[in-house]
Amino acid sequence: MNFFRLFFRQKDPRYIVNKYNIPDTINWNIELNENGLIATSDNLPGLVTNAKNPEELLEMINDAVLEYFDVPKMDSDFVFESLNLQGRGTVLLRHVQGQRQYA
Q1: Strand partners of residue 90
Q2: Is the dihedral of CA 93, 15, 63, 40 positive or negative?
Q3: Torsion angle, CA of 38/43/44/49, rounded to 10 degrees?
């Protein structure tokens, strides 16, 4: 659990997307190398992140997008709950105890 969630509840991702003008869909180029996965976005220049596995990649993508759009940490931990891998499967974001906690 994020430290801020002890004091500030997660805001609804739809609210965050609208308030900070975050696109509903972001296209990612995901590459696999010896250290894990690297994700870059053609839609948002300079947006790059990396992770060890697909589950962590979704968390890191959320963190990178929130940083890119200057969303305060106290407002949100995520905006995307899933990552569609172009018909090869979907990665879902794990929630604390399986429940969403929106303000």
Answers
A1: 84
A2: positive
A3: -10
